[in-house]
Each structure stands twice: as C-alpha cells, then as structure tokens.
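Practice problem: predict the structure.
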Amino acid sequence: MSPVDERELSEAVAGAEGPLRIVGGGTRPVGRPVSGEVLSTRGLSGIELYEPGALTIVARAGTPLAEVEAALAAENQRLPFEPMDMRGLLGTRGEPTIGGVVAANAAGPRRIQAGACRDSLIGVRFVDGRGTVLKNGGRVMKNVTGYDLVKLLAGSYGTLGVVSEVSFKVLPGIETRACVLLNGLSNGDAVAAMAKALGSPYEVSGAAHTPAGIDGHPVTMLRLEGFSDSVAYRAGKLKELLAAFGDISVETDPERVQAGWTWVRDVETFQGREGDVWRISVKPSDGPGIAARAGGDVLFDWGGGLVWALTAPGSDLRAELGDFAGHATLIRASEETRARLSVFQPEPAPVAALAEGLRRQFDPKGILNPGVMG
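Answer:
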C-alpha cells in the first residue's frame, strides 16, 4: 500500500486485517524483522510550509530528506541535528525521508550541542492504529501544545502511529568550519581531552575519536563552527587549552572538514566490512572501559558518550559487556541475529509496562510494526 494523502493513509490503517510493516525510504531497517503487509509513506511527499523568517518548515512524511535540506540551504538555513545517513553502513538504497528521520529520532555528531531530532521537532500529524488522524504540537516555535507527545513519536519506529506530517524549527547556516586535531592519543586520553574541550567556553559542536583513522593512527577531532573570526579565535584557544595532550593541528579547509565529519556521522569506518555493528550510549567517562570490554574496532562520538563497535557476526555484545550504566542497540546484523537478540536494550519492568501501555493505547490491534522494538 502506498497512500498519497492522509485520508488514504487513514483508510489503509483502519481497514488493515493484519500486521503492517511501515516503511519510508527503506534506508533504516533497524529493529527486529517485521512480517506484514508493506505500508509505504513515500507517496506523502512535499514541503507544505516554509517560512525562513520564522525559522520553521513543515513537510509531509515521505518528503526526501535531501529535498528538505536543499530548500533550507537555498535560504542559508539547516536542520540543527545533522541526521545520519545509514545507507552506507546498512547497505541499503533509496532516499531517506523526513518521516523516517523522525521515526528513528536520527541525529549526528552535533547532538552534543543541538540535541537529537526530537529536540527540533515542534509538531506532528499521524495516524494511530485505529486509523484516527491526530495532530500534536504546532507549526511555530512558540506553540508547544502537547509537546511531550511530539517527543514521544520521535524514536517510536512507527509503533505508536504512522507519521504523515512533521514541523521543525531550523537554524541559520554555518559560515565557517574548522577542526582541531589531536594525534596519537589513547582512548582514555582522548576522552579526557574531549571532555576538557566540551567543558570549555569555546562552543565545540563535535567531538570524536578513532583509534585508527584514515592513516591507521589514532586521531581525536574537535569541530568548531560559526563566523570566521570567532572560529579562528576559538581554535587558537583550544590549542592552548589542550597543549598538554601533545601533537595538535587545525584543519581549516572546508571540504576536508566536512568530509571528516561525514566520515564520523555515517560511521564510514565500518562500511563494507564484515561484522555486526552496535551503538552503545554511556557516560563519556565510561566510554574507554566499555570499548575495552567490547573488543574489536570502535569509534567514539559525542565526546565518548556514544561508542560504535564492530563485533563478530551473531555475537551478543550485551552479554560480553555485563551490567553497565547505559544501553546498547544492535544497528546492523543479519535477520537471523536480529530475530534472536533484543535489538534495543531491554527495559526495566516498570518502563516496559509503561511502554506497552502506550502501545495498547495508540495501537489497540497491535498492527503497527509489531515487535520491531523487541
């Protein structure tokens, strides 16, 4: 099924006689495999309202993300949260949609500064499991009616409703980017350096570390963005602040800086390589220890608060990590592995009961992507 408007979407859900597998662009098949009739939102496409002066944009769920970003770029504006493109990592094709970004609560390295998708989302329209069209939030930043439900839909992977329209607050474009590079640091020293930089007043918008960069050596990356004079000043101050960590340089070529952060954002280091990919969220100070217990190759983002790990196919990383303060999500694995293991971190019993209650409220027939978040 591929409805072209909200009425058709509502009728499709209301008339469903069994489970529905909801897809947008099909580029983010994260979660347990879902069996059911395919319901695509790609026909719900188009930017419905864009007011650059009000810093808001409204688009239908099936609108390609690239179309939204191009419209914003034409007015020197942008989505704040830098959504990850998962096609290279997951080996998928197609075009990411803005609705899929919301369903996954996607974000990139700028999350440490700007938050995730849900933090910029100010309104949604969606169809619940009964086929009822619901609206929450608004089209302007000052309208925060029902804001909690707006946040709830982001990251629900279609289990609470099929998103039909989304509204975002946006930000002005970026004039200049630079990247402060620290070479040869251990994982522990890298996290210490990133924490020091993020705790400074120099507005770091990205902090990542790889034990094996393009040249095979460790490199720690600190991104600065803004007006040219400000970026140059802050880069100099960061070099002074972090001088004790050794070899420091500053990359100012905009294309190289952008390419480096796309490499981090899309986890290019694991693309095309055999193995499962896990995303582990922890306190940054716990990152080095978690990486050591995970074994294999890792990539640190968000100052060490996000650890990407490449592991042997079919292995249960959570069992190897044991108890820890955080959560691990299986992002890439075979269908057999994703069916066998919990893709998302198992929730404590009270939280699981609350989540199940919400799903029953919004999807009493249990037809919307059933089991995808198991």
